[in-house]
Amino acid sequence: MKLSDGRALLWSGDIKQQALAMIRASRHRLYVDIYECSDPDLLHALIAARRRGVEVRVVLDATEKHSMAVALPTLARAGIDVAPIRIKQGIDHVKMIIADRDVLIGGMNFGADSWANHDASVNLPGRAEIFLPMFVWDAARAHGETAEAPEDRAPLISDRDIGPSVLRAIRGARREIDMEAFNLTDEDVVNALRWAVARGVSVNILVDPSQSRNRTAVEALRQAGALVRYYRPYGGELLHAKILDVDHGTFFIIGSSNFTHQAFTYNHEADVELMRVPAFAEAFESDLHRQMARGSSYPIREKVASWDES
C-alpha cells in the first residue's frame, strides 16, 4: 500500500524485494541496524554495493545466533564495517535499512526464513536524516565508543519512549483499536485496552499462537469484552507483526517493539508513529479482519519460537 508521498506499508515477501531494491539502487551509503540477519540474497547485495563504492556499515545484535554465525563473518570477510552491539539486560531489536535518503523500518527481520512470517514494515523515502542519529549512536556503541543517545524526531520513537506513546494512543482512542501482536503481555497496555473497551471503544486484536505468555492477556481482554483471536498459520510461519492502529489511522504505530515490559524497558527498539494515515489503516484493517476471520479462539497450532520473544 503506497501513499502519494511515497510512503509504503509492506508485508512479508514484499519487504525483502523492497530491501533488495534499495540496496541495489544505493549510490552513497547503506546503513543496516538489524536484530537477525542471515538472508544470503541480502548479504550478497550488501557485498556487491561495497564493491561498487557504496559506504556500507552494519550493526548486528550480539546475542542473535544467525547474525553472529552468518552475517558477521560473511560481511567482515568482504571488508564491510560490521560490528555486534550488546544491550545491557536486553537486545538490539531494531530492523532498519538506511539507503542514501530512504529508510525501510518495521518488524521484519532479515533472516533466511523471516520472509514467510506474517509481518510488516514501512518504506519512508527521503527521511533518512531523521533516522541517521540513531544509527550513528548504535554504530559508535557497537565499536566500544562512548556516545550520547540522540533525541528522537517524529515519526521515530525508540526505546523507553515507545511504551508511553502506545499508551497515549490507546487512551486517546474514541471509536476503534486494531492490533496485530507477536507478543502482548505488558500489564499497562492490557489494562489500557480493557479500559478502552469499558468506555465503548471497539478493540480487535490478533495474536501469535506460539507465544504462551499471550494467553493471560488474551483471557483478560476477552473477559473485558475485546475481540481477540489467535493467528492461524498457513504453514509454520509466525504472526510477527507489531502494529497498533487507533481510530482508522489517526494514530498508527509500527516497528520492532513487542507490547511487553521487556521491550519497553530494556531492549533497544525502533518504531514509527504515523498520524492521519487512513489508507495505511484501511490496508491493515483489511488484512486484520481477514486473518481474524480465519483465526481461532485458541492456539490450534504452535511453533516454538526460541528467538525474538521479548
Automatic annotation (TrEMBL):
GO terms for molecular function: phospholipase D activity; RNA endonuclease activity producing 5'-phosphomonoesters, hydrolytic mechanism. Residues 88-114, 235-263 form the PLD phosphodiesterase domain. It catalyses: a 1,2-diacyl-sn-glycero-3-phosphocholine + H2O = a 1,2-diacyl-sn-glycero-3-phosphate + choline + H(+). Keywords: Hydrolase, Lipid degradation, Lipid metabolism. Its EC number is 3.1.4.4. The keyword Hydrolase applies. It comes from the Bacteria. One of its GO terms (biological process) is lipid catabolic process. SUPFAM superfamilies: Phospholipase D/nuclease (SSF56024). InterPro entries: PLD-like_dom, PLD_domain, PLipase_D/transphosphatidylase. It is an enzyme of class 3 (hydrolase). Pfam families: PLDc_2 (PF13091). The keyword Hydrolase applies. Belongs to the phospholipase D family. This is phospholipase D. The lineage of its organism: Bacteria, Bacillati, Bacillota, Bacilli, Bacillales.
